[in-house]
């Protein structure tokens, strides 16, 4: 009998692995529907859907290994990171998905609320929050919407050698700022950004990418705590916020 491995679990959803199959169990069926629609529309490799039932989506395992893990050095060669950049260019140039993303005004309101919560609860020193809040302002500007993954963490991208074998977890895919995907991908590995840009093949605003790192991290700390994760683990959001603040 094959063992069952809990990949990730929190109050909203869980993913378990049984052999070469992943089962995504979600309390909100609309998220599963959105993920299936996004994978069908994405012009880059995604996992094969084996079957789906209410609240459960079964996916085949992807070949290769994750691009990296937060808090750990990435063993992927520069060519693999560049290949991910090339895949992102294809995704961002694709026709827009129907799901709208957050507007700059919505993000600014969320950012204000999270900064207030972080300082009120003394989760981080006030100066670290305020410095990151100032950095994040550069992301709150109009952008040309693109087909974005929306949660392009290192562990969501699989590579084999210097080729991308697939991208997982499409539940947050929406119209958004393409630089947000680049910022999320390199959140714990900013030194790899130039490799990604080499494959992406376009001029990008490095300050906006840096701003998205601060904005994502400021917005993410409370969610992680509320769902049983540790935002202070190596390479995670609190590490990012401290590093960003030290560069001001």
TrEMBL record:
<feature type="domain" description="Aminoglycoside phosphotransferase">
    <location>
        <begin position="16"/>
        <end position="212"/>
    </location>
</feature>
<protein>
    <submittedName>
        <fullName>Phosphotransferase family enzyme</fullName>
    </submittedName>
</protein>
<dbReference type="InterPro" id="IPR002575">
    <property type="entry name" value="Aminoglycoside_PTrfase"/>
</dbReference>
<dbReference type="InterPro" id="IPR051678">
    <property type="entry name" value="AGP_Transferase"/>
</dbReference>
<dbReference type="Pfam" id="PF01636">
    <property type="entry name" value="APH"/>
</dbReference>
<dbReference type="InterPro" id="IPR011009">
    <property type="entry name" value="Kinase-like_dom_sf"/>
</dbReference>
């Amino acid at each position: 009998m094959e063992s069952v491995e809990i990949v990730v679990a929190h109050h909203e959803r869980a993913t378990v692995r049984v052999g070469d199959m992943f089962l995504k169990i979600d309390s909100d069926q609309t998220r599963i529907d959105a993920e299936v629609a996004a994978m069908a529309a994405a012009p880059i490799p995604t996992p094969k859907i084996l079957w789906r039932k209410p609240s459960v989506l079964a996916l085949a395992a992807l070949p290769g290994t994750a691009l990296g893990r937060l808090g750990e050095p990435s063993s992927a060669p520069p060519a693999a990171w560049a290949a991910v950049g090339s895949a992102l260019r294809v995704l961002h140039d694709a026709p827009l998905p129907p799901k709208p993303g957050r507007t700059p005004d919505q993000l600014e309101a969320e950012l204000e609320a999270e900064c207030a919560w972080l300082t009120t609860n003394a989760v981080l020193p006030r100066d670290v929050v305020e410095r990151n809040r100032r950095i994040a302002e550069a992301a709150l500007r109009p952008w040309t919407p693109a087909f974005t993954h929306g949660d392009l963490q290192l562990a969501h991208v699989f590579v084999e050698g210097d080729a991308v074998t697939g991208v997982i977890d499409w539940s947050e895919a929406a119209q958004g700022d393409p630089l947000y995907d680049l910022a999320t991908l390199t959140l714990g590995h900013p030194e790899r950004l130039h490799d990604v840009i080499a494959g992406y093949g376009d001029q990008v605003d490095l300050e906006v990418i840096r701003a998205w790192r601060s904005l994502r991290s400021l917005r993410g700390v409370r969610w992680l705590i509320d769902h049983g994760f540790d935002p202070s683990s190596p390479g995670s959001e609190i590490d990012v916020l401290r590093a960003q603040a030290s560069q001001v």
